[in-house]
Amino acid sequence: MKTFFMLLLLFACICCQKNYEAPMPNTRWNLFESPGALPLHSYSRAPMEGIYTITDGAETFGNLVALRWSYTTDGSDSTFYLSAFCEKDASYFICEAKRLGDSILLNGYWRKMVNTETGIARFIIHPEKGGQLLMNPSPQVGTDSIIIDGTFGNGEDLPAFKITFRYQRILNTSNEFQILAHRGGGRTDDLLPASENSVEIIKLAPKLGATGIEVDVRLTSDGIPILYHDETLNNRLTIPNGMLGPIANYSYAQLHDLVRLINGERIPTLDEALHTVVYQTPLEFVWLDIKYSGSLESVRNLQAQYLQTAAELGRNLKILIGIPDDGVKNNFTALAGYLSVPSLCEKFEQVSALNSQVWGAPWELGLQEAEVAQVHSEGRKAIVWTMDEPEFILQYINEGHFDGILSDRPSVVAFYYYAKQ
Amino acid sequence: MTVSCRTGLPLLPFIIMQNSKRCFVLLAFCFFFGTINVNAQVDSLKSGSYSLVLYAGGGASYYSSQTGIPAYLETSTQKAEPAATLRLLWHPDHRLSAGVETGWATFYSYQLENTSIPGKLSLTAVPLLAEFSMPVTKQLHAYAGGGIYFLTSKLDYAGNVKSKSRALGWMAAVSYNHQVSRILSATAEIKWLNATETENATLSAQLLLAWTFLEW
Amino acid sequence: MVFAALNSVQVENMFKGGVLIFLWFINVTAYGQNALPQFIIFPGTMPSAWSSSLGLTFTTTPRAITEEEHISVPAIDFHVLKRAGENFNLDAHAYIQVIQNHASIGFRWLHALSDKVNISAGDDVAGWIGWIKIENINTRGHGLLNYPNVSLGYKVDEELLVTLKAEVLLNFHQKFFAGEQEIEQNPQIYSGEAFTLALEQPFFKDTWVTLAFRAMYSNFFWQAWSLFENYDRNIFYPELTATFIL
């Protein structure tokens, strides 16, 4: 009996522990890095955008996919990414592109947001399948004029499964619809490669389909606005280091020098976040969700500074102070000239009084057609939050009149919006 | 999804709390057959009387979690720290005893190295746990309980911050008892304190004095 | 576990209620019991026609999914066994948190392998229902679950019964309503497993208690329904149960 007990105990010691992770695969592809692979002509990009049918690979990713370009800028260098948003399992692809002769290479990875599945993805647009056409400065694109042949793999495995996209039609961009990514781009819990409310997730947001972001704003003990969702430092959001309790107890220096978000990033200041939005992304909309009770002066100053910068750069950017409750409302109305401060109010009955540009409507209350019509009649916009269920996203896009959707899964919103006929 | 393997006895309770069903099944079997094994040797401890026993003592603890001390900071870390226990148990007329336990333990402290300004941090816990106890043999007792850990983080870096937090957690311990007199006994105890929500755990060795202050 | 909508007063009241009921039953159960082993989980032939237990079950869930809406409130645990033959027990079990509740009925087929070792196989059909106000939005949900199970019991002596129980969690139906919206997520029928280690023994006088630890690995947990979790992963939910056998 003792021997049996010891054997079981020993076996228990070496048994396995399960962690959920979705690490981004290594996408290095020798052909893509070869000397002959050159940057894509800028005129080739726009015609590639569109709705494609998936012929091979439909059982994994669904029948349709929406292809859309985004970019990040570092100084004078811009890197363009072609994202593919699929219907099934909230899946998406993010690829970079190069031309090789008259072919176009797409190299990147795919991910399903409903689970941890991810892998490498590689595509080629052969000359006779649209590659040559896209080398033309003014290509005439129609059904099946672009056929993207590719392979995808699981995890770090080399791509082995065939996938094909066939061009069908242009993207729907019929109204100025905002696809807003929650917490800067997505929740830490969704196992994205960057932590929520970090500079890195803000750079990722456009690749996930977002045209705007919502970020959570708190104050350090020395009054610096930072991005952080929870009231406390905790293991959900930060790498444990012994610092616990309310984040408002700590100064900027302490947080900057000693704390790292769960994927290793620093907690960004609002200044850093807005700088990233303006100088490094094409994002058009920033919702500053105020998570603290206190003066909004420093937030308003940063908002004004970056709105001016964006205007000087010719950027069409909205930065709105979110007003979720009466406490924040009181601090907002304490601002001098608050009626001219761009804001987003979550309470319908306060939108007019605060002269908010946008009403933030909870999705649970339905399409709220009368209220949406009223804010539209006053020249305001209506954004619905926070919606992750595909069937509701589809319903609100097709049947509702909101001007945008806030979601943890912007790629799903992007798919249904761009695919709308 | 990835599966990673870790080995080592000190990690057992940690592993159980971390999503391992195989671990739990195996350990449950271990405990099951272990119980069979040891209880064959135990006489019934039924005494027919009730007593309240106060345990107090202290010793040293060793921080045993893999998380908690950040790899991205250069630190001089102190994992061995003092610990103390105060426990009140009701011993009814059967094997099982029940009560509450509190105490004090420093999980760890560290000094920052290679930073532009000097700094240090300590993380201490005061548990408040509901607890059950059972004898395994006449001298050897097992304890298990759960409750709340009141955590205090003291940071001295670019200013002083004393910040408090709470975390759910549990404890497990075994003690060896030596009867000194009718109402006093000395116990040597190995104890695992685990503030699960913050992933902090410490293994301590303590000496306690048990005083049976009320019998009826 | 209750999330989101509970304010501190509700939590405090529920906690107080639980403690009061717990203390009351300490008194109630101090009388009128016999010396035979009493059990509610052990897979043995019951000494009497009926057996029941009352106590509390504590659960917690990872902050990763509950985020800051993480409040632990114990559930009142009420369990009834009915002897339906020498080798057959009927089982009814309820977890009550008032704003969300879970009840099951089922059967156990029992078999004694020896004087000390018993096994059982059974099945429980369960329903759950909940209604919570989250950020001023009324949410509600209900669902149907099924728990096929097997148990291995060991009678250490007349004063200690040890049981290992394994269950499969089958989720047949779930429906949620948030405000005006009906959320129908197709449940993954095979949603996980649960393993329980239970000790049943006399505590004081002739009053028996059940102490159990249940480790559940599931992609759906009825107490977490209000999170509308849409991520396909199994999460570890530990449950600690302390009940008095009445």
Molecular structure report:
The complex is a heterotrimer of chains A (421), B (216) and C (246). Chain A is globular, with a radius of gyration of 23 Å. In chain A, helix 8 packs parallel to helix 9 (297-312) and helix 13 runs parallel beside helix 14 (410-419). Chain A is 27% helix and 29% strand. In chain A, the strands form three sheets. In chain A, strands 3-4-5-6-7-8-9-10 form an eight-stranded antiparallel beta barrel. Chain A has 421 residues and is an alpha/beta fold. Chain B is mainly beta and 216 residues long. The radius of gyration of chain B is 19 Å and the shape is elongated. Residues 1-26 and 32-47 of chain B have low confidence and may be disordered. With 246 residues, chain C is mostly beta strands. Chain C has a single domain (2-245), classed as monomeric porin ompg (Porin). Helix content of chain C is 10%, strand content 57%. Chain C has helices spanning 8-28, 63-66; strands at 50-59, 75-83, 88-96, 100-112, 117-134, 137-157, 160-178, 181-183, 190-204, 207-218, 235-245. The two termini of chain C are 25 Å apart. The chains are: A alpha/beta (421), B mainly beta (216), C mainly beta (246). The interface between A and B is large, with 42 and 54 residues. Strand 1 (16-19) of chain A pairs antiparallel with strand 1 (2-5) of chain B.
Q: Could you provide a short overview of the structure?
A:
Chain B is mainly β and 216 residues long.
State the distance separating the first and last CA atoms of chain C. 25 Å
**Main sheet properties of chain A:** 8 strands, antiparallel, barrel
Radius of gyration of CA atoms of chain C, rounded to a whole number: 18 Å
The outline of chain C comes out as: elongated
Gross geometry of chain A: globular
Mean pLDDT of chain A: 93
- Give the termini separation of chain A: 71 Å
Number of E-state strands of chain A: 21
What would the keywords be for this entry?
heterotrimer, A: 421 residues, alpha/beta, eight-stranded parallel barrel, disordered N terminus, B: 216 residues, mainly beta, eight-stranded antiparallel barrel, 2 helices, 10 strands
